[in-house]
Amino acid sequence: MQQPLLGAEGLDYDTFPEEPPPSPGERTRVGVLQNKRVFLATFAAVLGNFSFGYALVYTSPVIPALEHSLDPDLHLTKSQASWFGSVFTLGAAAGGLSAMVLNDLLGRKLSIMFSAVPSATGYALMAGAHGLWMLLLGRMLTGFAGGLTAACIPVYVSEIAPPAVRGALGATPQLMAVFGSLSLYALGLLLPWRWLAVAGEAPVLTMILLLSIMPNSPRFLLSRGRDEEALRALAWLRGADTDVQWEFQQIQDNVRRQSSHMSWAEARDPHVYRPIVITLLMRLLQQLTGITPILVYLQPIFNSTAVLLPPQDDAAIVGAVRLLSVLIAALTMDLAGRKVLLFISAAIMFAANLTLGLYVHFGPRPLTPNSTMGLENTSLGDPEQPLATPVSCLTLVPLLATMLFIMGYAMGWGPITWLLMSEILPLRARGMASGLCVLVSWLTAFVLTKSFLLVVGAFGLQVPFFFFAAICVVNLVFTGCCVPETQGRSLEQIESFFHGRRRSSLH
Q: At residue 115, does pLDDT exceed 90?
């Protein structure tokens, strides 16, 4: 077994000697003061993820309503409904691309606040929509805001959090996104579709108000030469009774060693491109596990695999499992470590996808003669679609395997990939590279979502699941060979490791 990447000893790694550890009583007192301020700033930021999760599943209750709308300007065909659902990912990709510039131009906090403009505009367009173009534009704008916050929030949270709680706080963006989705599902039972869009404005406005009184990232402020403001920000985050001089000096030394702008020649330096390549591959592999198409086509998949599941129960079951799994990840990330959870997550997803593939290939058939045709013809939100009739207790397998997959994803490859993205990227390239990661992630999600039905129609429903299972094996190998263990390390220690590394591979 390879030693953890950041567990190496030697002069190259031991760049920042640690101070003598404080007494347990002092550590507890200081930790409470630190965490109160940091938790408040984190909550203000991750409200953007709440909006992201809310907007992502907005189509779930809206598409059925619009498919049966009597207004010809708002009536959706199956093709239009598919675009209404998937155009969000194109907007998110554009938001990630914009984050490559805004993250470093405006700073992390202001970029998150800026996302409120397209988000609020998008919800207003959908609330007052009188034609398909308003729905699509509103959907794309909320996707743009989601992609922008997805790139900026993890960076902001990681840069304000102390190492002891950075793992737990790094899981909060995913946790809040799940809360946002659950809130949409709950409100969808009570409110008409236009009022759902109006309700989406509330977390956006709350985020703006709270972030306006929160400090910016000390690391960003130091990179702009605003040293006094950075010291005040760090002192506020850590508490008035905390001595922040040592931590501030480490951050300041790290920032001063780096120029404000990175040239393309410098980007070819191994200590710069290696962490960027790792994060890009993690975002790509995360999507290739199949999370987006499985969530988007969940009910059609169930309809095509001989299982009886009322549509109104899907969201509650999936949401509860996702929420529980993200909570497990948040509580164990700073105890078990990142790599252990990634291994467990990939192994669970592999078992779940392989089980689904084998069940579709060898298991009982639904009433429809061809299960793939049933999936192709199933509307994403049509509750009137005929359900398959289960023939034995074996038909519980698709539901259990899907829940297992969601659990595996949400406790590892969901939140940890975002956290590692914000931890291992070099400060100079953090804004640009995080935006690039979001761009790659959502472009991959769009391609998978749009091609899923084509693959199912041509080769059968089992083929995508076998492909996803194979990707999970790649994830296991990639985690063991390339992913660093960052548990308990400061961002400066992580970056100093990549600076000191001379060998060609990462272990």
A: yes
How far is Cα 447 from Cα 435, in angstroms, rounded to an integer?
Answer: 18
Q: What is the CATH number of the domain that holds 156?
A: 1.20.1250.20
Closest among 102, 187, 176 to 145, alpha carbons compared: 102
Q: What is the dihedral of CA 298, 301, 306, 308, to 10 degrees?
A: 20
What does the mean pLDDT of the chain come to? 76
Using the structure block, give the residue that is written with the tokens 């598409």. Answer: 63
CB-based burial, 459-471: b 16+ in 10 Å, e otherwise:
ebbbbbbbbbbeb
- The Cα–Cα gap between 50 and 89 comes to 17
Domain count, the chain: 1
Q: What's the CA angle centered on 226, arms 224 and 229, to 5 degrees?
A: 135
Tell me the H-state helices in 212-310.
218-223, 227-238, 245-256, 264-267, 270-288, 291-296, 298-303
Using DSSP, state whether 262 is helix, strand or coil.
coil
Contact criterion met (CB below 8 Å) for 242 and 235 = yes
Structural domain for 456, as ranges: 31-261+275-500
Question: Would residue 406 count as lying in a domain?
Answer: yes
Predicted model pTM? 0.71
